[in-house]
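Renewal narrative, Specific Aim 1. Our central claim is that a sequence can be written position by position from structural information alone. The example that follows is taken directly from our test logs and has not been curated for this report. It begins with the structure tokens describing the chain, in the order in which they were read.
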């Protein structure tokens, strides 16, 4: 049992370390672009906008193909909207 917990802790540390390194790299890139001037940052933004839109479309298409509507997967159905009345909890 102790070995499993050690492996989980090591895995968690590796994931967190990777996220910290990624955040530092993104921060360094943003800082370098800001130092170069606004024109360079605008050029990067113009290049990244179509990529971000396409990624959003891809994720939306993927979620809809799995039968999900939105992040919760319920399609907006909650207690009162399903006709259970005001006092219904679930």
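The sequence written for that structure reads:
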């Amino acid at each position: 049992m102790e070995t499993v917990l050690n492996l989980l802790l090591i895995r968690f540390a590796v994931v967190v370390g990777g996220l910290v390194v990624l955040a530092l790299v993104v921060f360094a890139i943003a800082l370098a672009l800001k130092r170069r001037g606004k024109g360079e940052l605008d050029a990067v933004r113009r290049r990244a906008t179509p990529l971000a839109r396409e990624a959003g479309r891809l994720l939306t298409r993927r979620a809809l193909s799995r039968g999900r509507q939105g992040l919760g997967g319920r399609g907006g159905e909650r207690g009162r909207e399903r006709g259970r009345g005001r006092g219904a909890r679930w």
